[in-house]
Amino acid sequence: MDIFVNLTIAGLSTGMMYYLLSSGLSLIYGLMGVLNFAHGSVFMYGAYAGVLVFGLTGSFTFGIIAAIVVGAIVGYMMERLVISRVYGQHLAQILLTTGLMLVLNELIKIPFGSNILPAFQPEALQSSWQIGEIVIVKYRIFLIVIGLVVAIILNAVMAKTKLGMTVRAGVQNPEMVQVLGINIKRVFSFVFVLGSALSALGGILMAPALGAINPEIGLMYQMTGFMVVVIGGMGSLTGTLFSSLLVGLASSYTAYVYPDAATAVIVIVMIVVLLIKPSGLFGKGAE
To answer: Is residue 268 part of a domain?
Structure first.
């Protein structure tokens, strides 16, 4: 029983980190139809910015703020200089953002090199609680709480605010929204920046859990993010949350039983879900 509880907590915390990465993809890819293969690079830049500022200041809060700011800036520049020119052109999006990913990955090596950069947990979250044989790591609980808070706020904003209604309307009929006097391009730009900031937040929160970061983590977790979005259903934030937790738990349990299959199980989950519901668990076509 104690092993099950420990694995469950570990899986939920991993799932919440996947959610922070994937929620940004769900907004950008699911709602706006943008195939951004450089999204993982924003995740990586957030991790590097946060770890660097945390190391310089000793404040994890400052590290989180730095990661979000850097992610938002990179996302804004990416959208204004590249993405805004190829809306609705999926092939062009794939080619341009893939090239952008390669450029961003190489640029990060200029100041930091290709070697790993240690990432430490804040001192207040390094310890754990022990209840009998159950060991509850504080940092994992912190990740679960942060993920839930972000999920609640994000879903509330998209479902109950004018911004959320404008985004949904803009996805369905951008011309009509534009006629009503709303600058839909500006709204989409904001959504892209928000998605990038969430990805960067996921980067700085995942870095201490990994213990070290390197220029390859962006590409590594980007594919996981895409699979999570597909499993949950395109454009569904609820589906993204559910699928993130499902993938996190599946990886955690599998890693205990057969570590070599911990990554492959994500692909297996995606295949099974798509065979049953091609639109994803919470996709528009799923009834």
So the answer is: no
